[in-house]
Amino acid sequence: MAVVSWKEMLLLTGLVMGCYWNSLACGFVFDDVSAILDNKDLRPSTPLRNLFLNDFWGTPMAEERSHKSYRPLTVLTFRLNYLFSELSAASYHLLNIVLHGVVCMLFLRVCRLFLDKTFSLLAALLFAVHPIHTEAVTGVVGRAELLSSIFLLAAFLAYTKSTSTDHSIVWPPIALTVVLVAAATLCKEQGITVVGICCVYEVFVAQGFTLPMMLDTVRQVLQGKDGFPYAVLQTLLKLIVLVISTLLLVIVRVQVIQSQLPVFTRFDNPAAVSPTPSRQLTFNYLLPVNAWLLLNPSELCCDWTMGTIPLVESLLDLRNLATVAFYVFLCLLAHYSVFSRHSSAKTVIMALSLIVLPFIPASNLFFPVGFVVAERVLYVPSMGFCVLVAHGFKIVSHKEQLRKISWLLIGVLLTTHAVKTFNRNWDWESEYTLFTSALKVNKNNAKLWNNVGHALENQNNYAMALRYFLQATRVQPDDIGAHMNVGRTYKNLNKSREAEEAYLVAKSLMPQVIPGKKYATRVAPNHLNVYINLANLIRANDSRLEEADQLYRQAISMRPDFKQAYISRGELLLKMNKLTEARDAYLRALELDSSNADLWYNLAIVNIEMKDPSEALKNFNLALELNPRHKLALFNSALLMQESGELQESENLRFDDLWIWRSQTCSNTQKPVKLNV
């Protein structure tokens, strides 16, 4: 295997930095907010073991609302970023750039197995600058792709060394391959597909089989004419070890998600809930859509959910021609690669394995996923695409009359892709720039209108945000979240009547409860917040407190583990002076989240109202154990201790300081902390 020279390393590093240096000016946008800003697993105060108990977003895997994306090694790198720079976005982006550079160098080493020095470098250069990668590199959450790709490529390279010069098995590289596959899978689920790539390499490249040769060998064995050749037995043994290891990883992965698939709504992936044949036609049409993004990444979009790609509902839909053309081309390549003994066939089949196998988990063909198209999942498949392009260019450039023009075209391709990537990075500068750029590509996605509204809302520009939220309801009239956004914005504009009307529309769109069927499996958990938001709005009117309580209880009946409903109901019951019920509501919330200092504080306030100072003091102290800087708990615990005569001299000093703080900043310290989702 030809090594990568230091000049090639410098070239790739310089190209990657040249394309992505402006991403250092970008902030945390889109999914970064949930994965970084809102993820407590990044904080040093969170036990390290939580990374292996929670999903990618910090939600316990056992909870139904969990996304079931188990990527602890990726989250660990986020935590290391936080350790060095807390929430400085530049450090997160810098590490992503470095990781992309590492992937490019490993990819070059892989290409050297199937292409000569010049064209393998060409494949790596194309991969380094391809605009489809901006979501994976410039979006911080794309680190899952980057890390998984590093381990995937390393696992493959390790496997290629598992056969010695005398054709015997070398076991250490196989053991290393299994470890690296596990690491790739712990970064992102698609990492496990490298096992399939290794199998393809072993059969068609290392052993040099074609499909007719394989069938002939099997036929002779079945007819008793001959046994399996020793080389074939060696191959089978290695593949059996790989397959068994893969099955064990799959079993562990299924156990981690507790045999539950995540809950997705029809807004995330409309085709997933569509009837036959619309579902099958649409999912198959998405394959040429993804291929087109690799071929022509001129119009990129950060979100392809909802109405971005209309359903293919009929066999007469002209888009089916694209699907047929895609499958015909794929079959021709596959036929050539498994039937031909030409050396280029090995290159083609490895390119196809890199394209097809890593894409299968995201293809929707075997199980639904939470998106229609996602550019970041094309990160690994684009490797196979780049190999095909380089291989095709090699064939064309060897023709004398096409050599100059082909080199010119490849130069133009690399330049335009690099410029597109650089410019695309600016779209990720902020949520507003990201989602407005997406609306230029697609105006039929209500989620994009909602997200621009959220960005304006974060700037306190509620009037402009309302325009985008209302447009989202027009684009997707049955979008519950859009109507909730309208209601919340009207509330921020002090238009309570309009806010209530919007919430009632959202509530009317909620699926009806079906006896014997879990409600949580049919609706997005955040949509249940419509009951909370509506109740919070109407409870400002003292004559409607019972009506608000009914809404909280309705939300709890639909989802018994809905923590926020218990919290909000506890606040209401305290206001209604139903102290026992308020205490029970907070206790139930604490069963769901015992690490929330504000909840312990709120429970202590209820204890004070119930004339139980000893229990209140105990709960204040529990709040302080979880958050020693909880000023309200500090003050009230000191106040209780002073009143009971238990305050020591050192605690009196603390109390005096807190009294000054209270007089300056707090009008009423004996109020529950308002907790919102």
From TrEMBL:
Entry's Gene Ontology cellular component terms: endoplasmic reticulum; membrane
Q: Which SUPFAM superfamilies match?
A: HCP-like
Residue limits of the DUF1736 domain? 259-330
Q: Any idea where this protein resides?
A: Endoplasmic reticulum; Membrane
The membrane-spanning stretches of this chain are: 90-111, 140-157, 169-186, 192-215, 236-256, 321-339, 351-371
Please name one Pfam family that this protein belongs to. TPR_2
Listed pathway(s): Protein modification; protein glycosylation
Where mainly found? endoplasmic reticulum
A GO molecular function term, named singly, is:
dolichyl-phosphate-mannose-protein mannosyltransferase activity
Sorted alphabetically, the keyword list is: Endoplasmic reticulum, Membrane, Repeat, TPR repeat, Transferase, Transmembrane, Transmembrane helix
**Its membrane topology:** Multi-pass membrane protein
Q: Which InterPro entries match?
A: TMTC_DUF1736, TPR-like_helical_dom_sf, TPR_2, TPR_rpt
Top enzyme class:
transferase
**Stretches forming TPR repeats:** 446-479, 563-596, 597-630
Which Enzyme Commission number(s) are listed?
2.4.1.109
Does the record's keyword annotation contain Transmembrane helix?
yes
- Family under the similarity heading: Belongs to the TMTC family.
This chain's protein is named dolichyl-phosphate-mannose--protein mannosyltransferase
UniProt source species: Xiphophorus maculatus (Southern platyfish)
What is the phylogenetic placement of the source species in the record?
Eukaryota, Metazoa, Chordata, Craniata, Vertebrata
